[in-house]
Specification:
With 728 residues, the protein is mainly beta. The protein folds into four domains: 125 residues, Cupredoxins -  blue copper proteins (Immunoglobulin-like, Sandwich), CATH 2.60.40.420; 103 residues, Sandwich (Immunoglobulin-like), CATH 2.60.40.420; 214 residues, Immunoglobulin-like (Sandwich), CATH 2.60.40; 165 residues, Porin. 13% of the residues lie in helices and 43% in strands. The protein contains eleven helices and 42 strands. The strands form six sheets. A twelve-stranded antiparallel barrel has the order 31-32-33-34-35-36-37-38-39-40-41-42. Strands 9, 10, 11, 12, 13, 14, 15, 16, 17, 18 and 19 form an eleven-stranded mixed beta sheet that branches. Strand 31 and strand 32 form a beta hairpin. The termini are far apart.
Length: 728
């Protein structure tokens, strides 16, 4: 029998390497409001810097360290928060104000403390309002205690998008019209544009199915940045040196294609090492990270280019020196491609294939679980085991565009075979026109909590019913992306914290519930999250701390914001004013209109006939709503109830009845002939309303180079005139 001294000595020898590395690493971060010019076009006064710059400083740790990070808020009249994205930590340190961490009020600070349980490439950003878009984001790098792969140079590449327009105004503009920024991006779809592209049939088919066409990005940006610059020198690597690039997509709402003038070897995704794979380019969703390894072949300067997914711009950084080797130029996507056979087909088919096989594959993982020795009692243990594994670097034919479907874990990630499975289905949907986003038909303010139980396997099937990609992120956990249908080994499904759900595609993720707390689950498109596509996951056996209880009931995610939209139109024979107050499913609208019966008569005192509606509308989905209120017609008031529906070809139809039992039918549609020329057609039929004419119509031909204004001709049922409109 060993003596007590021998036992103590053995414990010391086992734990000594850990304590030798364990040290406290401290940083101070100060958030301020400063003037900056990042686009090269305009200095703005709303930028939020961290320690004086955008992006924020790179924070570096070694696995086993204790982190201490003091965050100071010096922004006047505005709360601040910092979320440590992808980091496994206690929930109260996660940094989502009002969900699990108190907000940092103006003039105050908060000290975050947590042990570093993992290694890899991560990042941090604000989780308050739209501060992430304004500049509060930076890299969070954790070095392993021992390198698994040798390299000579290590460089951080932070991708981001930048607008010279205040992000608070961006979200207001999108709520007025989801297509607001198409004009800025020169991406307005039209009939003649479709005809020139040879896709008129597809364009008409999209309208018949009530789709507006592909949508790759909502916002028109003024610059795309790498480490805060549009073009910069990254490192001067020499021939023969092996370089590790840590690429982080910190964009608020932009996917990026990342490529070089040579194939790249991907060795890690979302901080977790993967079986190395070669690729010509990588498609990075918001919040994803990829680590790339390559050897400098010649004494030249190689471009690393990040091209935004809709190919409206890019940023460059250079590696090495000498003759420049440019990365390939991306072609603009076909804006008129079919959603069934278009540019997204590769990603959609992979996602759909995984989902079709998902139920079988998800149950099949139990068969593999017995073969693995991974200890899922602690998520970081599983990650560290993979990150310490020795590997043979990749070769062979590179993948054209790398996505999660091409990733494979180093060893089995199968979950415990005896754990109870909790299945969840989350349908990702939204309305681009009114710009609302939700899950299972409800925004977060309507359905905030998803409850789970410790010790169970939580399996989530995301089904994307929209034409946009959605990068779904779960706080406090790593999940398996069940992609066995793509790589033939479901038990080697990769671990990630953020997964792309492609348009009209599906993804299945699953994780072992062993991180008790209250955590966000949301789309990492900032504007999708802020308009409803989010949830809070809470463990049933987790007791909120006093601080959490204090702030939980005041969570801003529970508040539904009101937006407004005004349109004014006037001409020689017609004038109209529309004003709307908008929430997620509710709208109050005032519509006043007057017409001149004789457009050529401008005598003083000429009477114009005034009519109008004041309606409350309640939407049930993208197409159906009911409304009620009052109408003024020929100097007489009526109470009105009705229903509206969006028909095929994007025709908006309404039928209503007034308090006297008389019906009214309205239809309207916009015909976008070119990117700047359109026709708005409206018809109203009032049978039995004792009016001079039962049918009224308006037909315009307008030139509109901007969302804000247009001018042209207006024909009514009795006259033709010149017309102009503005909206704001």
């Amino acid at each position: 029998m060993k003596s007590a001294f021998q036992n103590i000595l053995i414990v010391f020898l086992i734990t000594a390497p850990w304590f030798a590395h364990a040290k406290t690493v401290r940083y101070e971060l100060t958030v301020r409001n400063e003037k900056l010019n990042l686009s090269g076009q305009k200095e703005v006064d709303f930028a939020l810097t961290v320690n004086g710059g955008i992006p924020a400083p790179v924070l570096e740790f070694t696995e086993g360290d204790d982190a201490e990070i003091l965050v100071k808020n010096e922004v006047p009249n505005e709360e601040v928060s910092i979320h440590w994205h992808g980091i496994l930590l206690p929930p109260e340190e996660d940094g989502v104000a009002y969900v699990n961490t108190p907000p940092i009020h103006p003039g105050q600070s908060r000290l975050f403390r947590f042990p570093i349980r993992q290694n890899g490439t991560y990042w941090y950003h604000s989780h308050t309002t739209v501060q992430e878009q304004k500049g509060v984001y930076g890299a969070f790098i954790i070095h392993p205690r021992k390198k698994a792969i040798a390299y000579d140079r290590d460089a951080v590449v932070v991708l981001s998008d930048w607008s010279d327009e205040n992000a608070d105004q961006i979200i207001r503009n999108l709520r007025k019209d989801g297509d607001y920024y198409l004009y800025k991006k020169d991406s307005v779809r039209s009939y003649f544009g479709a005809l020139r592209a040879g896709s008129l049939g597809t364009h008409l088919s999209n309208e018949w199915t009530r789709m507006g066409g592909m949508d790759l990005s909502d916002v028109g940006y003024d610059a795309f940045l790498i480490n805060g610059k549009r073009d910069s020198q990254l490192i001067n690597a020499k021939p023969g040196e092996r370089v590790r690039l840590r690429i982080i997509n910190a964009g608020a709402s932009s996917y990026f294609y990342v490529s070089m003038g040579l194939p790249m070897q991907i060795i890690a995704a979302d901080g977790v090492d993967v079986t190395p794979v070669m690729a010509k380019e990588i498609l990075l969703g918001m919040a994803e990270t990829y680590d790339v390894l390559f050897t400098m072949p010649e004494p030249k300067s190689y471009e690393l280019r990040a091209t935004v997914q809709d190919v409206t711009g890019f940023a460059s950084t250079w590696i090495g020196s000498g003759e420049k080797v440019f990365a390939p130029t991306k072609e603009k996507p076909n804006a008129y491609a079919s959603m069934e056979h278009g540019a997204h087909e590769e990603h959609k088919s992979h996602g759909a294939h995984a989902a079709v096989n998902g139920d079988h594959a998800a149950h099949a993982h139990h068969a593999h679980a017995a073969a693995t020795k991974t200890d899922w009692s602690n998520q970081s243990d599983a990650m560290l085991k993979q990150n310490r594994a020795g590997r043979t670097l990749a070769g062979g034919q590179p993948v054209d565009t790398l996505t999660v479907d091409a990733l494979r874990a180093i060893e089995s990630t199968a979950l415990p075979k005896d754990a109870r499975v909790h299945d969840l289905a989350l349908v990702l949907d939204g309305d681009m026109e009114r710009y609302i986003w939700h899950m299972n038909g409800k925004a977060i303010h309507e359905d905030r909590l998803i409850e789970i139980q410790s010790g169970e396997i939580v399996r989530i099937k995301f089904k994307n019913e929209t034409m946009m990609h959605h990068p779904m992120h779960l706080h406090g956990h790593f999940f398996r992306v069940v992609n066995g249908g793509a790589n033939g080994r479901e038990d080697r499904s990769p671990l990630k914290h953020t997964v792309d759900v492609p348009p009209h595609g599906e993804r299945i993720i699953e994780f072992y519930a062993n991180e008790p707390g209250q955590w966000m689950l949301h789309c990492h498109n900032l504007y999708h999250m802020k308009t409803g596509m989010a949830r809070v996951i809470r463990y049933k056996d987790f007791q909120l701390t006093p601080s959490m209880r204090k702030y939980d009931q005041h969570d801003p995610h529970l508040h539904e914001h009101i937006y407004n939209h005004t349109r004014l139109e006037g001409g020689t024979n017609h004038a109209r004013a529309e004003a709307r107050l908008i929430r997620t499913w509710d709208e109050i609208g005032l519509d006043l209109e007057t017409k001149n019966e004789d457009a050529g008569n401008f005598e003083v005192g000429r009477e114009w006939d005034l009519e109008g509606d004041l309606f409350y509308r309640r939407w049930f989905d993208n197409y159906l709503h009911v409304f009620g209120g009052g109408s003024l017609f020929h100097e007489k008031g009526f109470g009105v109830l009705g229903v509206g529906y969006v028909l095929p070809m994007l025709i908006e139809a309404q039928v209503s009845v007034n308090h006297e039992g008389r019906f009214r039918f309205d239809i309207e549609k916009r015909f976008q002939w070119t990117s700047t020329v359109f026709t708005d057609a409206e018809m109203s039929w009032r049978p039995g309303w004792e009016a001079e004419r039962e049918t009224e119509f308006e037909l315009s031909l307008m030139y509109g180079p901007s969302w804000r204004w247009a001018a042209g001709l207006m024909a009514t049922e009795n006259s033709l005139g010149v017309d102009a409109l503005i909206q704001f």
